[in-house]
Amino acid sequence: MEKWSLMTITVLLALTVRWAVSLGSYSGAGKPPMYGDYEAQRHWQEVTYNLPIRQWYFNTSDNDLMYWGLDYPPLTAYHSLMCAYIAKLINPDWIALHTSRGYESQPHKLFMRTTVLVADLLIYIPAVILYCFSLKETSTKKKASICALCILLYPGLILIDHGHFQYPLSLGFALWAVLCLSYDWDLLGSLAFCLALNYKQMELYHSLPFFCYLLGKCFKKGLKGKGLVLLTKIAGTVVLSFAGCWLPFCTDMEQIMQVLRRLFPIDRGLIITNYLFIQCFFFFPFQDKVANIWCSLSVLIKIKNIVAPQTQLKFSFAVTFLSLLPVCIKLTVQPSLRGFKFALVSCALSFFLFSFQVHEKSILLVSLPVCLIINEIPFMATWFLLVSTFSMLPLLLKDGLLLPFAVTSLAFLSVCVASFSIFEKTSAEDLQLKPFSLSLKGYISWVKSFPKIVKSLFLLSVTLMAVLSLMSATVNPPQRLPDLFPLSVSLVSCLHFILFLVYFNVVILWDSKNSRSHKKFI
């Protein structure tokens, strides 16, 4: 009873914060003609309810793909249809074909916000709770509740899901997949990740660690025995999962190709092999200033004026692939659950930093696995999660979410400091850098000052983010530099992310625990 009473309080607190944030504005509120992501989700309900499945992804007189046309996999469409049936029972005007475009009202806002909260309650929050109870480091009930509270209070996901407007289902399914793999339920884990991938194709950010980890397990079991059986079962699970999700679209090849064209817009000048391997190479104009390498470099060098788009795509593909390669090789050769979780962070961050033009919300795909290791490296995880939220500041300001951003960020930092005593866990050993430090000459001479250096950098970072946030909200930029503050936010965030990528790669590649723990798969 005690563990559930503590966890109940944790969940109630998390729900209260989500409800408070949901009372504010949302993406595109009162901004015709396109409005924002809120309208996109409503429009998908309109389309899926009123049109036959064969028309969902096609441009017709009743389905203008230029106006928030469906561009996510079938599971998103099915979810929209399910919400539409409920909306129809409450108020048919909410999903009336054509006439409901741009519909806004308080009852409808309450309905839409409730659908997100229900998705949290059914998919994301239970996965977080069970994951925290599964951790060896959180064997006590109190520690599990504290870990869950920190994850559930991560401000980035709260602000995007319950402020900006987005459903947490793909991340929730991905978390269920990690949870299943932690119990060696490889088939269920494969199924859960297939659901995540069939809800949002951006889950390809996480696909390589899943693939390498499971393939590594099969190798260690022996591809002439148990390993081959496991590999066959996993392959069968993946095929059946995709077949189940895509079955209604398998009536003819044109249906399948049209859905693929919407998910991977190769007709916009993209290379098909690159796109199928790395979905995040969008060839769209930047929707906002994004904290990745190419956006940051464009401030100093107008790459598009120097290099042809196809060359940019090839180069970004090469850089992304090379940044992923060492971690993926080690995970395949030495598969371990711990290495898998760190690889999820490193690979997703590489995709975000080096892929050609991504959305700022994609940083959430990095933040989720960072949440999963907050119990192992609380100081660095807390720091990263604060920076990831800050990196979305231009988007949050556009949605009128400055106050929720400030309050949730401060609350999250306070809870992490109180729960994990993060400032007392800044030694090389606490940051899991001891193997790397020992490999450097002069380790003894500088290791004593390491915690002080790290804490100073953290305080400098937080101060800089606070000042930039305040200036972005209160100071008008110079007329000739209208994007001064969004660009500053992107550049500062990008610099942080590069350093974090180096840090996570060092932890993974110098980690001796993986080489010891992988023997259990043999």
TrEMBL record:
Its EC number is 2.4.1.-. Keywords: Endoplasmic reticulum, Glycosyltransferase, Membrane, Signal, Transferase, Transmembrane, Transmembrane helix. It is an enzyme of class 2 (transferase). Residues 1-22 form the signal peptide. InterPro entries: Glyco_trans_ALG6/ALG8. It catalyses: an alpha-D-Man-(1->2)-alpha-D-Man-(1->2)-alpha-D-Man-(1->3)-[alpha-D-Man-(1->2)-alpha-D-Man-(1->3)-[alpha-D-Man-(1->2)-alpha-D-Man-(1->6)]-alpha-D-Man-(1->6)]-beta-D-Man-(1->4)-beta-D-GlcNAc-(1->4)-alpha-D-GlcNAc-diphospho-di-trans,poly-cis-dolichol + a di-trans,poly-cis-dolichyl beta-D-glucosyl phosphate = an alpha-D-Glc-(1->3)-alpha-D-Man-(1->2)-alpha-D-Man-(1->2)-alpha-D-Man-(1->3)-[alpha-D-Man-(1->2)-alpha-D-Man-(1->3)-[alpha-D-Man-(1->2)-alpha-D-Man-(1->6)]-alpha-D-Man-(1->6)]-beta-D-Man-(1->4)-beta-D-GlcNAc-(1->4)-alpha-D-GlcNAc-diphospho-di-trans,poly-cis-dolichol + a di-trans,poly-cis-dolichyl phosphate + H(+). It is found in: Endoplasmic reticulum membrane. GO terms for cellular component: endoplasmic reticulum membrane. Dolichyl pyrophosphate Man9GlcNAc2 alpha-1,3-glucosyltransferase that operates in the biosynthetic pathway of dolichol-linked oligosaccharides, the glycan precursors employed in protein asparagine (N)-glycosylation. The assembly of dolichol-linked oligosaccharides begins on the cytosolic side of the endoplasmic reticulum membrane and finishes in its lumen. The sequential addition of sugars to dolichol pyrophosphate produces dolichol-linked oligosaccharides containing fourteen sugars, including two GlcNAcs, nine mannoses and three glucoses. Belongs to the ALG6/ALG8 glucosyltransferase family. This is Alpha-1,3-glucosyltransferase. It comes from Tricholaema leucomelas.
